[in-house]
User: Which sequence fits this backbone?
């Protein structure tokens, strides 16, 4: 029995599902089931009652979970203490940032570090936000910048700015533009359901932005015609710039677009915005004031936006 076995059992007990636990642990469900079966055979006990509806711990399983949680907590505390000792000596600061956002924010972050004269080399790690959350909790990334929500309750977060979600349509897409313009005049925003006959370019299923779009479509009682799914905001933008469909993207991305062939429209829905967060493990607070860093980042970003708007 090792630490991984304990993590498996505790996660299954918490989620009451092998499939959900497998997704959370980034392992396949068959591999997880086999690991639990091996552990049960080794201990000669059953840890879980299994049926088609849910999974419950047995009496022995509940005792195992109780002890395992204490052991895992102690291990985590020990790891954090070691990491703090190492942190004092490190000269590399690792920053995690969602795909597509690095080009918009890294210059502002480096500007803050330069002003503070912090003696750190910067290592940038890009990826999907759930992956970055895991890297932050494990101590492989010091802090990250990505959209809400965060799914790990052990992490702390500070709001940086609010992103408005906008509908982007190519100027040659006359039918879609006509509908969007009429909607904006009448109700100060576009109902996506009015464009249900047009192909959409969207982020892949499971991505946070796609979840928001799906929620909007559900609220408006339609399923979008998805022509292309992507993992990158800029890919979605590029395809719309070439008039392959319409898309919904954060205003931060669209404001950086130099295309004069796109028109942007506000979306008529309660879920038409989201917050961008600065996310970290609490251990970093002893060395970096993240609240101040978040405030300085926001100030620099909005100052740059004001300069751009005045040009």
Assistant:
């Amino acid at each position: 029995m090792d630490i991984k076995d304990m993590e498996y059992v505790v996660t299954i007990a918490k989620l009451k599902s092998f499939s959900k636990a497998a997704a959370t642990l980034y392992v396949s469900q068959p591999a997880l089931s086999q690991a639990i079966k091996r552990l049960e055979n080794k201990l000669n006990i059953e840890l879980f009652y299994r049926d088609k509806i849910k999974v419950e711990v047995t009496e022995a399983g509940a005792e195992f979970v109780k002890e395992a949680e204490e052991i895992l907590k102690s291990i985590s505390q020990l790891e954090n203490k070691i990491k703090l000792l190492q942190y004092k000596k490190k000269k590399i600061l690792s920053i995690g940032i969602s795909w597509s956002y690095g080009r918009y924010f890294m210059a502002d972050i480096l500007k803050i570090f330069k002003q503070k004269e912090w003696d750190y080399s910067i290592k940038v790690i890009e990826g999907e936000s759930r992956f970055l959350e895991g890297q932050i909790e494990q101590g492989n990334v010091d802090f990250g910048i990505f959209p809400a929500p965060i799914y790990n309750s052990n992490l702390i977060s500070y709001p940086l700015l609010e992103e408005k979600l906008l509908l982007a349509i190519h100027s040659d897409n006359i039918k879609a533009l006509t509908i969007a313009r009429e909607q904006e005049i009448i109700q100060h925003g576009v109902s996506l359901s009015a464009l249900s006959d047009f192909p959409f370019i969207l982020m892949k299923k499971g991505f946070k932005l796609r979840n928001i779009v799906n929620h909007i479509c559900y609220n408006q009682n339609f399923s979008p015609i998805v022509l292309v799914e992507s993992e990158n905001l800029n890919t979605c933008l590029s395809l719309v710039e070439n008039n392959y469909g319409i898309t919904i993207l954060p205003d931060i991305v669209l404001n950086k677009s130099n295309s004069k062939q796109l028109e942007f429209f506000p979306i008529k829905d309660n879920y038409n915005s989201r917050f961008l967060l600065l996310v970290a493990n609490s251990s970093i607070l002893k060395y970096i004031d993240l609240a101040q860093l978040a405030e300085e980042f926001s100030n620099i970003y909005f100052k740059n936006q004001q300069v751009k708007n005045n040009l």
Observations:
- The mean pLDDT is 87.
- Residues 84-157+276-309 form a domain with the D-Maltodextrin-Binding Protein; domain 2 fold (CATH 3.40.190.10).
- The CA atoms of residues 16 and 55 lie 5 Å apart.
